[in-house]
Design a protein that fits this description.
Number of helices: 12
Order of helices and strands: HEEEHEEEHHHHHHEEEEHHHH
Radius of gyration: 21 Å
Structural class: alpha+beta
CATH architecture of the largest domain: Alpha-Beta Complex
Length: 339
């Protein structure tokens, strides 16, 4: 998006003088749903006014509610990072953070974490080790033990409910078959495996009975983890509870899959082994392969969607297609393992 097309408040906040704390320069990072401003020691995250069906930020009130929910949910794992709700205000044609006048936008203020300690950067440098994995398990096991459970949440663990999330991926990617990232053979084998597993209602019922369906993170992988002075896990899914109310096995499978994707199979196995032992959740292993397959396919789907965005240049398109190809290949490996 060219700078002149940014909302007025984003253009105003690109000025270092707009902040009540020292800022040398402001860096803007965009996703398909957010504007993220890196300003000095802090980060300001604003939601774009979009409605994708599964996500609705179309009104100011809805964006405010989601910001408030984001703070509540992410403070479960990273209370030190999520500082509070911020307002962009307009008074006499002047836009300001938490000023007087009309509120034109809401956002979330966060502590800026050290880039070099992001888990994805650590993986890229080949420095991820057993100690990091042990630290993650020490944080995650009590998190899931404390995470909310209810009859309503349990309903999201049924085979029927899980199928909604899993099978929609195949509907959404069918038109991409044969584009170089997803083959017909992969599509057929992965979808057949998923449907076969979903028919095993007794496995899903057993997980519900064991109390393993919780209000989880929903997006647990290296891009949302910082391994600094302590473990910070952030950016959980706040906008749609059906992606967050899930089996604990689905949540940890995302991180295990992510480690496999980066060629860290030994650390993935260690993570699962330590987690199962510490949590006493032996039946997690009955579900793990299914959920790692699901998570790999979702990441492949996101790569396809990003590559298809007209705003993406050819170099980025090629990179996203290659990443999608790798994720679909991994999903197929899981599907073959499960047959």
């Amino acid at each position: 998006m060219p700078e002149e097309q940014y909302p007025d408040y984003i253009q105003a906040l690109l000025d270092p003088a707009a902040y009540p704390h020292p800022v040398d320069a402001v860096e803007l990072v965009q996703t398909h749903i957010s504007f993220v401003l890196l300003a000095g020691e802090f980060v300001y995250k604003f939601k774009k006014p979009v409605d994708f069906g599964f996500l609705d930020f179309s009104t100011l009130d809805k964006r405010k509610a989601c910001c408030e929910q984001e703070l509540i949910l992410n403070r479960r794992l990273s209370p030190d990072i999520y500082l509070g709700l911020v307002r962009v205000t307009a008074e006499a044609d002047n836009l300001a953070l938490d000023g007087g006048g009309e509120v034109v936008e809401y956002g979330v203020k966060m502590v800026r974490m050290p880039e070099e300690r992001m888990m994805s950067r650590i993986i890229g440098r080949g420095e991820l080790n057993h100690g990091h994995i042990e630290s993650l398990v020490r944080i995650l096991v009590p998190f899931y033990e404390r995470a909310e459970r209810s009859a309503e949440i349990d309903r999201y663990g049924t085979a029927e409910s899980v199928a909604v999330n899993v099978l929609e991926n195949f509907d959404q990617t069918r038109d991409f078959i044969g584009n170089g990232a997803l083959s017909r053979e992969q599509f057929d084998s992965i979808s057949a495996y998923a449907r076969s597993f979903l028919a095993r209602d007794e496995l899903f019922a057993a997980r519900i009975a064991a109390g393993r369906i919780r209000d989880c993170h929903g997006d647990l992988y290296s891009a949302n983890i910082c391994l600094a002075d302590k473990v910070y896990i952030y950016d959980c899914i706040e906008f749609n509870r059906r992606f967050r109310y899930c089996d604990v096995a689905s949540d940890v499978a995302f991180l295990a899959m992510d480690l496999d994707f980066h060629g860290l199979e030994e650390l993935a196995a260690l993570f699962i082994d330590l987690f199962v032992k510490a949590s006493g959740d032996d039946s997690l292993m009955d579900m793990l392969n299914f959920y790692t397959c699901y998570r790999a396919y979702v990441r492949g789907k996101i790569g396809l969607f990003t590559a298809a965005d007209p705003a993406v240049d050819e170099q980025a398109k090629a990179a996203h297609l290659d990443m999608a190809r790798r994720y679909f290949s991994l999903a197929q490996q899981y599907a073959r393992r499960g047959d």
